[in-house]
Amino acid sequence: MAASMSRRIFRTFGSLTSLGRGSSPNLSANTSGNGLSSLTSDFKYGMALLSNRKLSTSILTPDDTFPSDLLTKKTVLTPDRTIGQYQDLVIPVTNFQNEEKGFMVLAGDVFDVPIRKDIIHNVVRWQLAKRQQGTHSTKTLSEVSGTGRKPWNQKGTGRARHGTLRGPQFRGGCVMHGPKPRSHAIKMNKQVRRLGLKIALTARAAEGKLLVFEDLALPTHKTKNIVNYYNQMENTKKVLVVEGGAIDEKLKLATQNLHYVNIIPSIGLNVYSILLHDTLVMSRDAVNKIVERMHTPINR
């Protein structure tokens, strides 16, 4: 038993021959004599080797077999990036021809902010309420056309008493407490509105659905140019193209018949439009203008 333990320790601490030591007197003592003393001396010698090597704890000898289950190929999963750390992002720049145009650094305070669903909900609610026309209107008693004569006598007819036929109880009469033209807009602080846009951009960047192009120029105005590029995109239903300045006429003609591709200038980029499209395509100029817009101090 002592001999087997000694050989196990010998294998763990390495081959003495490979380390430059020919033989150990303790090895021959394992077969005869006190096995405990040889075990203790081998252990002390092995610890001395470890203290000298420092960088490793074990060496496999040729007769040792490596566990087969550890040799199987396994997919190494890299940890996902933590969102909301305000870290600058590096994203490749391409174009409609899938040509590499270098890289671009996205500002972390615009494209890597903490995700807050309550802010997105409030901003979308503010947008939808603000865009309501509010032109609904009903007529009151004084606005309904008709005679002001009393329809019949107060008494003697057996009918209910009435003073006008323009009341709400008559067909063609007025509407009491009906809607009138008004604004449906609700108050929303500028800081919250700006934060909502940052969160929407962060969500698209985190999903890998934010594409940056060098420019949005097309060789021709043919719709097939956009259709061919759209067919190469994966898991994409609707695309929002954001241009920094004036929209190119060829791009406008190429996308006007496609219901799943919309174009918007950077000055009009908003949270609701980003959420309606699952993929966001922005030109380099549009990204720079959005970042500049987010960094501009708010006028109070």
TrEMBL record:
Ranges of compositional bias, category Polar residues: 135-145
Keywords for the protein's UniProt record, in alphabetical order: Ribonucleoprotein, Ribosomal protein
GO molecular function, one term: structural constituent of ribosome
Stored InterPro entries: Ribosomal_uL4, Ribosomal_uL4-like, Ribosomal_uL4_dom_sf
Cellular component GO terms, alphabetical: ribonucleoprotein complex; ribosome
A GO BP annotation: translation
UniProt-annotated stretches for the region Disordered: 135-173
PANTHER family tied to this protein: 50S RIBOSOMAL PROTEIN L4, LARGE RIBOSOMAL SUBUNIT PROTEIN UL4M
The protein's name: Large ribosomal subunit protein uL4m
Organism: Arabidopsis arenosa (Sand rock-cress)
Lineage, highest ranks first: Eukaryota, Viridiplantae, Streptophyta, Embryophyta, Tracheophyta
